[in-house]
Write a structure and sequence with these properties.
Layout lengths: L1 H22 L2 H25 L2 H20 L4 H28 L2 H27 L30
Helix pairs in contact: 2-3, 2-5, 3-4, 4-5
């Protein structure tokens, strides 16, 4: 009985996320990646506290994947110059620290990465406030929209980040 209601709740949550992604601006998609990475780190910390090594590992892998395949992959190092190069190096550092946190079971390392992500997300959110005030550039379905972040072979957009 409980399993079926849990399945319904999970399905409802998935629909909500999918709808949010489809309706989100490219800028909002990057913000959602930050939120997802932060959520995964919070879950890893909880599982670390309770001693659930398997779930801790899964949460750390999720955070690492979001950082590498989402945030880092969305950087355009050619156009973004030094800032994009610095973010790329910082994302590499975060991934290494998450791995170390998992191996050493160190909540302080998780907190360090979380703090870095919160700082970057805060700056990204401030940029979003100015982006949201500008008129919309192109309708949904336009060829000007960036390819999905999950496609690592997709061509880069000519901005710092694909958003």
């Amino acid at each position: 009985m409980f399993a079926s209601s849990r399945h319904g709740v999970n399905a409802y949550a998935r629909v909500g996320v999918e709808t949010g992604v489809l309706a989100a601006s490219p800028h909002k998609l990057i913000a959602m990646l930050y939120d997802g990475a932060l959520s995964a780190i919070n879950m890893a910390a909880r599982h670390m506290e309770t001693g659930d090594i398997e779930k801790k590992g899964e949460a750390i892998v999720k955070a690492t994947t979001i950082i590498q395949s989402g945030l880092q992959a969305s950087l355009n190092k050619e156009v973004g110059g030094e800032l994009a190069q610095n973010l790329d190096a910082l994302y590499d550092y975060m991934r290494r620290r998450l791995f170390e946190a998992h191996v050493k079971n160190d909540p302080e390392m998780l907190a360090e990465v979380k703090g870095l992500l919160v700082d970057i997300k805060s700056a990204w959110d401030e940029i979003g406030e100015t982006v949201d005030k500008q008129p919309a550039a192109a309708p949904i379905g336009s060829a000007d929209l960036p390819p999905p972040v999950s496609d690592p072979l997709a061509p880069r957009k000519t901005t710092l980040m694909r958003a």
